[in-house]
Amino acid sequence: MSQGDWFIWIGIGAGFIILGILGIIWGRHEEKNYFEALAERNDVREFMSHWPERPQSGAVMTGGIIALILGGMLLIAGIVIWIVAAVSS
Questions:
Q1: pLDDT tens, 54-70?
Q2: Domains of the chain by residue range
Q3: Any residues with CB less than 8 A from the CB of 38 and at least 6 apart, and which?
Q4: Contact 22, 55 (CB under 8 A)
């Protein structure tokens, strides 16, 4: 591997971490909006029929957690490659 390869790994890892954090924040926001909309309604039609359709907040948060884990692993791999490249040169 060339000496700059570690930067790519760290950059992609940081990107996935940012995407993961955004996904978790978006999921929590959607979940909060959904439950607030339920509390304001007199009936539970929205709850029973799932109308209007909304992104499933649990799926968005799960995707965010997966992106955080993947980003952390890529970030650690990039740091390890950086250290190995620094020691070997």
A1: 667 778 888 899 999 99
A2: 5-88
A3: 44, 46, 47
A4: no
